[in-house]
Amino acid sequence: MQKETPIFFLLLLCGLTVFAQTPENSSQNNPEVERVEKAVYELNQAMVNRDETALKNLTTEALTYGHSSGNIENKQAFVDAVVHGDFNFISTDTENQTVYFSGDDTAVVRHIFLIEAINKGNPVSIRLGNMMVFKKQKNQWRLLARQAYKL
User: Phi-psi category of 96—alpha, beta or left, where left has phi over 0 and alpha has psi -120 to 50?
Assistant: First the structure.
């Protein structure tokens, strides 16, 4: 019996350590993860396609869109820059994407954002860190905030 007690406490400690490292708002087994990931993909495709209607539908009115340069845009400035600006997205992709939830209506997405584009006539390849906050409105995930950062 005395030998079993230390083993029991060792196993309990290991279990608590594993549990403590798993966030309670983990996206594992959450059906909303796919919906948020779909919203990220659709937003990226709308940027490539310069689709003004989709960009407006996928973003909240209160959007704050931060670039890695420090420039911050509201919804109208963001949409205008994508649709009519000198920067033309050719393709986008993401790496190492994670989704975390705060309640039922807020999702935080982090990923590495990979961009191929034409900037003022010159081809560019960009690799940025990205954090996005999505808000669920009328059963649709919409971008509320985004901040990119240089890697």
Answer: left
Q: How confident is the model at residue 30 (pLDDT cuts 50, 70, 90)?
A: confident
The pLDDT of residue 5 is: 56
Mean pLDDT score of the chain? 88
Q: How far apart are CA 88 and CA 93, in angstroms?
A: 15
Dump pLDDT digits (tens) for 63-110.
Answer: 999 999 999 999 999 999 999 999 999 999 999 999 999 999 999 999
Please give the Cα distance from 37 to 84 (Å, whole number).
Answer: 26
Token readout for 39 is 């919203």
Asked if 58 and 146 count as a contact pair (C-beta separation under 8 A), the reply is: no
* C-alpha–C-alpha distance, residues 68 and 63, integer Å: 16
Helices (H), 21-122: 32-49, 52-57, 75-84
Domains of the chain: 31-150 (3.10.450.50)
Cα–Cα distance list, 60 to 31, 40, 129 (Å): 22, 14, 22
